[in-house]
## 1
Amino acid sequence: MPEDPIIELFEVTKVYPLPAGDVIALDRVSMAIGDGEFVAIMGPSGSGKSTLLNQLGCLDRPTSGNLLIGGRNTREMNDRELTSLRLNTIGYIFQRFNLISLLSAYENVEFPYLMKHRRPDGSGRVATLLSQVGIDSAMAKHKPPELSGGQQQRVAIARALVNDPQILLCDEPTGNLDSVTGQQIMEMLTGLNRKGRTIVVVTHDPGVARYARRIITVRDGRVA
Amino acid sequence: MKDIVLQLSLRNIRIHFLRSVLAALGIVIGVVAISSMGMMGANMTLSVKEELSRMANVVVITAASGPGGGPGGFGGGSSDEKISEEEFRDIQKIGEKYGLVYVIYRESDTIEVGDKEGRSTIYGLDEDVTRRIFSLSEGAFPKSTSSVIVGPTLADRFDLKVGSRIAIGDEDEGPATTVRVVGILEERGMSADINSDMAIIGSEKLFTGIYGNEGEYDQVNLILNDINDSQKARTEILDKMNRKETTVNVQDSSRMLESITSTLGTMTTFVMAIAGISLLVAATSIFNVMMMSVTERVREIGIMRSIGAQKSEVRRMFLYESIVLGVVGAVIGAVLSLGIGWVVVLAMVGRTDYFFLP
């Protein structure tokens, strides 16, 4: 167990009730992720990796068990508090980028900033982040459908970082990218980890997993 | 400040432009329907009220047909009971405070024009009063006891022109009086005081010359300066005249006016309620558009929520969208209503004099 855990799971179970019978996606998972760790979660398809990441990202509540983020039990938080946890503490990078297609690249990154600060970004943080991930100001004016997959994922990373979260959760971040772009993205994540961010990557690609310092394997809803 | 949630709403309206326009159009139609119907009703009420006010400012006093007598005719046929000179003075004392009081001699009689025979009502009126209450379409007011003015309907029926002669009275009962037409009245329509369209109007002297009965009046009219006094004047006259026994009947037309106005009001409300249904339908269509929008944007809502947007922000996005559709529709509807309302009022009421009255 890491000494200074930022994420802790105690007997977390997630059951999806289906007409054909309950599906146990996570079965009494207990684990901890330390502050500043770079962890890869691996496992075959349907093993429960994404369900686990959704739990860590507070996108979903466990059926039973406890999840602690930064020492606070998420079970005791209401929807508002969980949302603000997602806004301030957690950055989420999705496999399918999940940018808002009605907003420009710049506005997509600005969106969580506005949700948090309730005022436009005066410090140039959004523009700086975009240029750090390799999106210039001309490109930032484009809407997501006008950008390539790699560019979209860069925008998504900038968006995940805009509120300076402690934890960065990545669900197959290179899954939709070619290998060169994928490599660039992983190096970017490694750089962020070096600056102290906790990074959790879900992947079934061993090439991605090798960037992590610890690998957690999930099989049939249980941590092996 | 840049409101990104508002931006999302506006952009969503823009990319679903046709759908949004249709939803707003529903509101436009609803607003136009409801307001033009309202305008029509209000204009019609004002117009009818004015038409009626011209006759409603008259309080008609007739003699009661006996102790506890029945209601007097409403500007209608003559009864045998008369109002005496003394009674008239009493009425005048009260009536002067409220407006013009004058007496009417009235008789229905046979008339003959050339070889045409018929009946008409003959009124005997003070010459000054005649000038005040009637307007002529041609000719002049009578200056002598042998000249009269006639109503337009009568003039039409008997081919009367200025200068024509009319013989009044049944020759079997005595010699007829021949009078000369010097003027033809403008059409007045139905009226509470004098139905002049089918009448011959002459001086008091002419009337008493033919029928006698000087100082015994068929009717006393009070033309009010202020229509709102009608109730007060009526009560005062009744209190004074009928203290011991019922000597006069007093008819004021304000209650008729009230009931007609209130009927029109009810009709207007009813028509507006029907128009209101279209607004309800429009609101439902906006609701439907919103529901479709929510279903279509489940993914977007999920993204917004996952990156830290509160439920209230998401709700705000849809609220803005429906407010924009509703307000745009209502504003366009209000502007169009002015034009369409004008046309509807012109078509249904026939005049737009009241359109911009408060």
## 2
Amino acid sequence: MARYVVATVGEIAPGSRKLVTVKGREIGLFNIKGEYFALANKCPHEGASLCRGTLVGLAQSDGPGDYRLTRQGELLKCPWHGWEFDVRTGQSWCDPDNTYVRQYAVSVEDGGELLKGPYVAETFQVSVEENYIIVDM
Amino acid sequence: MNIAVREETLEKQATRLAIVDCDIHPSMRSSAELFPFLSARWREHMQTYSAHIRQALSETLAYPRMTPDVARRDAWPPNGAPPGADLDFMREQHLDLNGVETGILVPLRTGAGSQRNLEYGAALASAMNDWQAAAWLDKEPRLRGSIIVTPEYPEAAIREIERVSSDKRFVQVLIPPRTDEPLGRRRYWPVYEAAVRVGLPIGMHVGGVSGHPATGGSGAPSYYIEEHHSLVPAMQAVVTSLVLEGVFEQFPTLKFALVEGSFAWSPALGWRLDKHWKRLKSEVPHLKRAPSEYIREHFWYTTQPIEEPDNPQDLFDLMGWIGWDKLMFSTDYPHWDFDDPRYVFKAKLDEKRRSMIFRDNAKALYGLR
């Protein structure tokens, strides 16, 4: 497994995202309340660009007449058929056991640490001063 | 190891499919796009009175949709046009990307067939047909048109069928399944007669405004999911009417393409009607054959939005009961419940059936080369 520098910290504000291509695969990076998550940009249902969908909350109900909206901005809604995925786990809300979107491990490291490793800069200039978002795949 | 990535725009997926898409919805920036195709009298009418149909809000749909303009969220062209209104974007996002060899336009704007003012409806139908030719067919050879007509005004519908059908790029006569009366009633037969005369099938895309609750007799639906599904029993009611009124005894070569009305119900409807017919056929002696035989012979079905049973094989069993020669792939682009040709079937179809559904059946029905 290799580690890919995909963004600088600060580049993706809380509630926003960035689409990148790593090893030919499209990945959406999300900042959810300060935590970073990476999901494959392909809906497991019919293949839409999932990471272009809107971030929504979770509408829950214990029965008719009882409604609440929780976890605002933590569910990603597919731009086509509206399937909703938990950005934290990649799982579909309606069929979590069988339907999930590929998730990648994300970490944040400082430039000083990255410069020690065997690392090939293509378009990213890694500098000691900044922190970077890393995806493992 | 650490590797930095090259930032790239999202690549467009290549596709090796060459398909016929039987349901593409072209749209327009505003109804002013129809002005060049309307006489001064109807332009003025449109600007002064606009539409009047059998529901309270005439310029919208009966129930709020889950997405703006009923569209895929990613189908809004970057230039600000509404989904389906920009040909270049449609080419890029759909025709090229999904390998659409032939796309059949099903324009829904203006609801010409549901207008209470019959002459206005007829003027809208003509304008929509001329607009289809000028704005779409003249510019994109992969597209084919649907002749929009007014079933409540058969004389105008016949004139329109005769006027437009000489343009061979139009491949069907389009009517809505929700009309003043069930479509098997004789008031509508002149329209079928005209379609048979020019050799075109009738395309019936879900919709239309009958003035009755969408559920058909059991009151108004509460939810979009309920209203959305009501399109399917409405289609079954139309098929039942067409069969039992004897339309296919009168017009043995008449063909119907049911667009977006589902298909899984068709075998069960046939079984049920056959059961009743065995006991009650003396009431409908004009039927010479079992109802399921008319259904099997005269109806084609587009696939979208496709049923998704837990066991994908169940769907294939159903398709076999209907007839593999009667199912035609459709996407419904740019609408939200779009089916993607790469992922629509959850299990593998053999090459022959794949070719029939994605291309050959539509080519045969519509006479596409």
